[in-house]
Each structure stands twice: as structure tokens, then as C-alpha cells.
Amino acid sequence: MIKAVRGTRDLLPPDTALWNFVERKVREVFARYNYQEIRTPVFESTELFARGVGEETDIVSKEMFTWEDKARAASEKTQTLTLRPENTAGVVRAYIEHELGRSGLLQKLYYIGPQFRRERPQKGRYRQFYQIGAEVIGPQSAGSELPIRDAEVLDMLTALLNAVGLKGWTLFLNSVGCPNCRPSYNQALREALEGIKDQMCGDCQRRAETNPLRVLDCKAPADQPFIEKLPKIADYLDEPCRKHFAEVRAMLDALEVPYEVNERMVRGLDYYTRTTFEFTHGELGSQSAVLGGGRYDGLSEQLGGPKAPGIGFAIGEDRLVLALQAQQTEALAPLKAFVIPLGAGMNRHALKLAKELRAAGVAVDVSDESFRLKKSFETAEKLGATYAILVGENEVQASAFAVKNLKSGEQTTVAGEELQEYLKR
Ligand code: HAM
């Protein structure tokens, strides 16, 4: 038997109803906050992620699906391609390539789609997973760097999570500084690591030299006591970063968005500057981050583009759905009615009735005139339909249908023209 590849999975009904519900709700909220959709390719040049996300990150150094793409014509060169491990680099590449900053306006872009990382699969962690993300990016003159953008993004995130009904999340917030203050923090980290790094894992030993901030991402249990004692970034922020962070927090307080400052949270991607954040959820066990994001004021320039500060986030849709399933009780979009044709020649009348009901927005399914009534009722129950509607010779002539409530067992006769109203009640 050929099975789905390790770390990938099929999303099947009824779960897909919840995925669709989530996507519908977030699209509604994005529209209210004036975001528009962007769709970028699923694979890009490897270099985009190496330069954007950073060579020393776990993502780039260990987790990318990369291949040499052979030339297919004499005019083509071989190129190194990668399945996107995240979507921010792709969005910023598109921003640069299509000169989206030319309008002088902020670009508020969202995306929903699969991402790929070669991580060790476990609950909430897959090699193909789905992100719902958004980026606010634009020229400085459009206000892209201002703290109000950060507060607005976080406000929208709480609205998104409310709209899908997620309860019990925690927002962790931090500032990771900027290219002006980061060097002094890196220097402090290097000095602190000097005496202890030999007792730490191989990754930490290397990163202590190449990119000491990434030492804070280390998951090795033995290294945690060392990491706990390292200097904190909050003590190294320069005055503009400190002020920016204070303004973001003041706006969140005014909006009554609850958060906790977590000075250890530096996020596993190199492009972040200033505000970073994660929302976690208790139902998710070790993979507790439902979403993460932050500011990336230098990313566009790093990719060869114009200055274009930005901030964004990505929700792990797999994890959001898992968390919702853990708390969800009521079924989503259940089948309203099962239309049962009774005897030869009744299929066309049943289909006609089903067509009218569907056009009126009622979810219905249809049996077949060759099935015994008992079998049709059993199918209706299995499908979770609320009502069964019987369509026989007499019903068609009288244009009044026997409607049985399958939950209560009650049966009544409803006139054809009142049926929609009756079912929608
Ligand atoms: P990230 O923290 O790497 O950030 O991923 C965001 C979210 O994607 C995580 O919080 C998690 O919910 C989900 N996720 C990540 N890896 C997996 C996996 N293997 N399986 C299931 N879910 C996963 C980014 O990707 C940034 N691009 C976010 C961003 C946008 N920052 C600024 N703009």
C-alpha cells in the first residue's frame, strides 16, 4: 500500500469543514482591517530563504526541502530551489519585484497556504503544514515603521482568534532591538558564552561564534540552565527601540489586549527587529505556539530592495484547528435535510425540491427511489441530517411534504412554499 509521506497528511471531512470555517472567518476579519490577498509560488530560489530567514537558523541550516533543478534547455542554468518554509520572504520578494511600494501606500497583504519544513513529525508539527499569515509593509513615509502598525496587527490577531472562537490563548511580547543596538547585545552574549560554550551542544558552540542570538533558540535540555543565565536583550535596547516598544505596549493597554513580556523570546528567524510576539495555547502540548510574528524593518534591503519596514505574523493553521477541536462541541455546518424519494418516478421530483432548497441556501442531500425507506432513514441519521423530507406521489400532488425531525422523532406536513422557512427556523 502506498501511504502519505511521513510528516504529511490528508485532511478529510468532517475536519475540512472546520478548516473551511476558519479560513472563511479569517478572510472576513482581514477584509475588515483592509487586507488583500497575495499568492506567491510554493517554491523559490534557495538564496531567498538563505538571505531572508538566515543561514544560521534551524529552518535554513536543517529543515529546508532543497533540490538542484536541472537545466531543460541550453539557455537554462541549473538552479537551487527550495519549497517555501515560510511566506514572509516570498511576500517581500514580490513587494520588491513588482515595486509595490511605488504607490506610496502601506501594503496590507495576507496569505493562506502550505509551507514545508523537514522537522521531526509529532502532534502539531508536520513537514507540510499550513499558515494563515499577513504582512504590513511599505515605504517609511506611509508609516510602516510606526508603533501603531504593531498595535493594529496585534489587535487584529485578537479579533481573528475571537472570530474563530479560540479561548485560553496567551500573547507573549518582546523587543529584539535593531541593527544599532543588536551588536552590543551580541557582544555581551559572546562574552557570556565564552566561558561556558564548551559545555553546551555543538549547535550552540558554533552559533556562539557565528550568530549568538540563535543560541537562545536551543532546545537541548542540558543547555537550558546556561541559557537562563545569559544577558537579557531588554537591557541592551537603544533609546528609539525602547520608546517604540513602550508605545506599542501603551496602545495594547488602551485596547485592553492582554500580554506578557517574555525577554527570552527571540523567534527562530533572523529578519526580526524590534517587536516580536507569539500566541500560545495550553491544549497544544509541546508545540504550543499557535502563531508567531514580528517586525522586520531591514528585510527588504537585505534582499536588495528599497527601505520598506514591515510587520507580520503567521498562524499555524494545523495547530489552530487542533486547539479548536479540543474545545469544540457543536458540529459545524451540519446537513439540514435528507430528501427521500418514495417509489418509481420520484427521483426527479426529489431532485427538483433539493435544487430549490439548495438555491435558498439550505444544505440538503438526496437518497434514491430504489432504496427502501428504512435504509434511507438510516443513511439520514448517519449523515447527521436534522430532517428527513419524504417525496411520494401524494406529496407531489398536494405539494405538501412529510417532514420528520430526526432528533426529536416528530413528524409534520409542511406545504411546499413554507418548507424553506420551516427548515431555516
Ligand atoms: P514561525 O514562528 O516560524 O514564523 O511560524 C509561524 C507558525 O507556524 C508557528 O507559530 C506554528 O504555529 C506554525 N508552524 C511552524 N512550523 C510548523 C510545523 N512544522 N508544523 C505545524 N505548524 C508549524 C514564520 O513562519 C514567520 N514567517 C511569521 C511572520 C510573518 N513573521 C513576520 N511575518
Write a structural description:
By secondary structure, the protein is of the alpha+beta class. The protein is 36% helix and 21% strand. The protein is built from 15 helices and 16 strands. It has an 8-stranded mixed sheet with strand order 1-5-6-11-10-9-7-8, sandwiched between helices. A 5-stranded mixed sheet has the order 13-12-14-15-16, with helices on both faces. A 3-stranded antiparallel sheet has the order 2-4-3. β15 and β16 form a beta hairpin. α1 packs antiparallel against α5 and α5 runs parallel beside α9. The longest helix is centred in the N-terminal third of the chain and has 18 residues. The site of histidyl-adenosine monophosphate has 27 residues, from β6, β10, β11 and α11.
Structural class, please? Answer: alpha+beta
Gyration radius from CA atoms, angstroms: 27 Å
Main sheet? Answer: 8 strands, mixed
Q: Please tally the helical runs, counting DSSP H or I stretches of 4 or more residues.
A: 15
Bound molecules: histidyl-adenosine monophosphate
Proportion in helices:
25-40%
The strands making up the biggest β-sheet line up spatially as 1-5-6-11-10-9-7-8
Overall 3D shape:
elongated
Low-pLDDT segments, ≥5 res:
none
Q: What is the residue-mean pLDDT, rounded to a whole number? A: 95
Q: How far from one another are the termini?
A: 47 Å
Q: How many beta strands in the DSSP annotation?
A: 16
**What fraction of residues sit in β-strands?**
15-25%
